[in-house]
Amino acid sequence: MTVAIILLLLIVLLLTGMPLAFAMGVTTTVYLYVTGIDAGMLAQRMTASIDSFLILAIPFFYLAGELMNACRLTERIINMSRALVGHIHGGLAQVNIFASMIFSGMSGSATADTTALGSVLIPAMKKEGYPAPFSAAVTVASALVGPMIPPSVALVIYGTLANVSIGRLLIAGVIPGVVIIASQMIFTYFIARKRGYPRYERASLREVGKSISQGGPALLFPVIIVGGILLGVFSPTEAAAVAVLYGLVLGLLYRHMNLKQLGKVLVDVGLGSCRILLIVAASAAFSWVMVRENVPQSIGDAISTISSEPLIVLGIILIVLILVGLFMVASSAEIVLTPILVPVVMQFGIDPVHFGVLMVFTLIIGGATPPVGILMFIAQDIAKISHAQMVRAMIPFYIPLFAAVVLLAVFPQITLFLPNFIFGS
C-alpha cells in the first residue's frame, strides 16, 4: 500500500508539470516522513550517488560532444559518407544513415545528430527529389544510433546507476551501433530500388582518400576514446577529459571557435550537466525507497509467475520499456527505471551490460514515436511537414528498428563479444 501511494504521488506530481528531480525528491521526503526515517537520509543518498570519480565522465563527454559540434565537422562527415556509400541505391539517404554513425561518435546524442545532420541533409534530399517526409524519417531513424557508439552519456548514466563497468558498456555499444545502422541501410536499399530514388556514381580511390583525410578528425574522436580504454591508457573518465582536450585542439586548428563561443558552450554544458546530475541524485534517493520496499523483488516474482526463461523475461521488460518510451523522455525513464530493473534482470541471469545497451536503445526509440517523439518534431520542423506526415513516414522505419532490438535481444553475444574479448567474461 505504501509503495502504491508513493508511486501515485510521483505520477500526480509529474502530471502537474513538476520537474522529475523535484518530483522524486518530494516523493522521497513524504516517504521518509510517513515511515519516521530521519529526513537527512535524503541528502545522504543524493550526495553519495554523485560523489564519484566515474560520474565526472558525464559532464566531460557532454562537453566533448559540444566542442566537436562547434568545430563544424558536419560537412566533412557528409562528404566522406558520400564518397564511401553514396553509390548504393538510395544515394543521399544512405549517406544520411552512414553519417549518423560517424556523427554519433562525436556527439553521443540522438538530438544533436538529428539537428546537425538534418539541417543539412533534409533540404539537400528534398532538392534531389526525395519526398520531404521520407527525408525526415531517414534522419530520425538513423539518429537513434547516437547514444550507442562512444561517447555515450546514456550508457555512462546507466553504468553509474547500475554499478556496472562503464568501460565495458562503452565498448559493448559499438557492434550493436553498427548492426542498427546496417539494418537501416539494407532496408533503405530495398525502398530506394522500389521507388527509383537516385544514387551517385562510385567515387574513385583518390576521392575516397581525400574525403577520409578531411573527415579523419571526426573518425579519430571515438577511436581515441575506445582505443585509450582498450589499451589501458586511461579510464572512461580520463578518456572523456582527453576527448575534451581533443575538441579544444580541433577548435583552435580550424579556427571555428572563439572565447565567446567557448563561454557559451561551457555555460550550456554546465547547466545541462547540473540538470542531469540533479536527476541522478534524486533518483538514487527514490530508488533506495523502492529497494527498501522490495519493489524489484516483487517485480521479479510477478514476472516469474509468467516465465522464468531469461529471453521471455527480457522480452516482457523490453515491451514495457517501449511503452514507457512512448510517454516519457528516454533520459528520465532510464534514470528512474535502471535501479529498479537491473536487480530484476540479474535475478534471471541476464547480463547487466547486455541489458544496459538494450535498455538505452529501446528507450531512445521513444524519441521517434508519438506522442512525445522529440526527434520527430525537430525533423518535421526542418522538413516543413505536418506531424501526421512525419508519423506516416516513420511507420516503415520501425521495421528495421525493432528488428535490431529483437536481434540484439536474441543474440546477446552481439553486444557482449567485444567487452568479453577485451576485458574477459
Automatic annotation (TrEMBL):
It is a multi-pass membrane protein. The chain crosses the membrane at residues 47-64, 84-103, 134-157, 169-192, 212-233, 240-257, 269-291, 311-333, 353-378, 398-422. Keywords: Cell inner membrane, Cell membrane, Membrane, Transmembrane, Transmembrane helix, Transport. Residues 7-414 form the TRAP C4-dicarboxylate transport system permease DctM subunit domain. The keyword Oxidoreductase does not apply. Pfam families: DctM (PF06808). The keyword Cell inner membrane applies. InterPro entries: DctM, TRAP_DctM. One of its GO terms (molecular function) is transmembrane transporter activity. One of its GO terms (cellular component) is plasma membrane. It is found in: Cell inner membrane. Part of the tripartite ATP-independent periplasmic (TRAP) transport system. Belongs to the TRAP transporter large permease family. The complex comprises the extracytoplasmic solute receptor protein and the two transmembrane proteins. This is TRAP transporter large permease protein.
